[in-house]
């Protein structure tokens, strides 16, 4: 089971790495690009904005999930639900990324919001499994 979990964690890390490259590359190609800054005038109609926000959203969400997943590994959670949760989070982040890249909307909830919520649920499942392992 651990190889399946580690594979999912690898996919999550590679996804964030790809987001980083896309966000950095799209911004760097802009005329007058300043390292570390995007224009305040950009919004969802700009791919540079969406690529930046996709990466930032992962920076906000992925570390917490990885901490929960590694805590689960450390306390000995080795269940099918743990593996499913890791892969659900991985796939949800990929779909969230693709929707953020492809759909320029200010609407809330946007289609990507549903995949964000799948990630939240996957995170909750992992945290519940950790709690169960701690009291067992």
TrEMBL record:
- Entry keyword set: Membrane, Transmembrane, Transmembrane helix
Q: Where mainly located?
A: membrane
Name the Gene3D superfamilies for this protein.
Membrane associated eicosanoid/glutathione metabolism-like domain
Cell location: Membrane
- Any stretches that span the bilayer, and where are they? 6-23, 58-75, 81-102, 114-135
- InterPro entries assigned: MAPEG-like_dom_sf, Membr-assoc_MAPEG
Q: Superkingdom of the source?
A: Bacteria
Its Gene Ontology cellular component terms are: membrane
The name on file for this protein is: Uncharacterized conserved protein, MAPEG superfamily
Q: Which organism is it from?
A: Pseudidiomarina woesei
Species classification: Bacteria, Pseudomonadati, Pseudomonadota, Gammaproteobacteria, Alteromonadales
């Amino acid at each position: 089971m651990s190889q399946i979990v580690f594979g999912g964690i690898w996919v999550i890390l590679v996804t964030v790495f790809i987001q980083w490259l896309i966000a950095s590359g799209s911004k760097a190609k802009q005329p007058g690009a300043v390292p570390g800054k995007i224009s305040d005038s950009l919004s969802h109609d700009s791919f540079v904005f969406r690529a930046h926000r996709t990466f930032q959203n992962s920076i906000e969400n992925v570390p917490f999930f990885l901490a929960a997943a590694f805590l689960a590994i450390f306390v000995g959670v080795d269940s099918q639900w743990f593996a499913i949760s890791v892969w659900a989070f991985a796939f949800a982040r990929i779909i969230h990324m693709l929707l953020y890249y492809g759909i320029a909307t200010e609407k809330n909830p946007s289609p990507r919001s549903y995949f964000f919520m799948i990630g939240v649920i996957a995170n909750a499942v992992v945290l519940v499994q950790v709690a169960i392992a701690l009291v067992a």
